[in-house]
Amino acid sequence: MEQKNKIKKDIYIMEAILLRSKTYLSHELPLPSLVIYLESFFRQLKNVDDTWLDKCMKLCLDIEVCYAMSFVDDEYKDLSKEDTQIVEDALHEINTLVEKKMQELRAEISTPDKLACRVCGKLQGDLPWGEDGKTPTFDVCYCCGVQFGYEDCDVESLRKFRQAWLEQGANWFVPKEKPKNWVLEEQMKNIPESYR
Ligand SMILES: [Zn+2]
């Protein structure tokens, strides 16, 4: 139980990292604040391995270097176009790493079946149908675009939805969320037995 709570705390911190990073990318958070948040959040994580953390810290460092370079005469100036790109690329990489680790941690404290989209098998950030399997979040799957609680509310309807999605080329509903080396067949293995 103790361990489960520690993992939950890490997930909470990771959510905070993603939120800050997305807020920065949508130009609502200034770089100096982002830099402060990122470092301190990563340092608080307890249930991650060193290799993973090193990768994240290195990306944070890339961002910090750009930040440092933005000081002219001791005054903070906007980033150059090149540095903006470096920061954004680093953040996208951080997001991918964090999302993947969050999924692993969530899988550790929950039944994996409950995390998977019933249509495409993508593991979700939140349990799409709740802990009891009866309380849909009404979120949309970034991969197949199903809305949990609507098209996936019975087997017949979700199979129809899946088939149409596959026939149209299994395109990602939110293309920028698609992992670089995504394999459809691998992901579909996550679909719970009773929804195949
Ligand atoms: Zn899906």
What does this molecule look like?
- It is a single chain.
- This protein has 196 residues and is mainly alpha-helical.
- The chain contains seven helices and two strands.
- The protein folds into two domains: 2-109, Four Helix Bundle (Hemerythrin (Met), subunit A); 112-196, no CATH class.
- It is elongated.
- The longest helix is centred in the middle third of the chain and has 29 residues, at 81-109.
- It has helices at 2-25, 31-44, 50-69, 81-109, 112-115, 155-167, 184-188; strands spanning 71-72, 75-76.
- Zinc ion binds at residues 117, 119-120, 122, 141, 143-144, 146.
Are there runs of 5+ residues with pLDDT below 50, and where? Answer: none
Total number of distinct structural domains:
2
Kindly report how far apart the N and C termini lie: 33 Å
Task: State the CATH class of the largest domain.
Answer: Mainly Alpha
Beta content: under 5%
What is the helix tally? 7
Order of helices and strands: HHHEEHHHH
Largest sheet: 2 strands, antiparallel
Bound chemical compounds: zinc ion
The total beta strand count reads 2
Assign an overall shape. elongated
Estimate percent helicity: 55-70%
Radius of gyration over all CA atoms, rounded: 19 Å
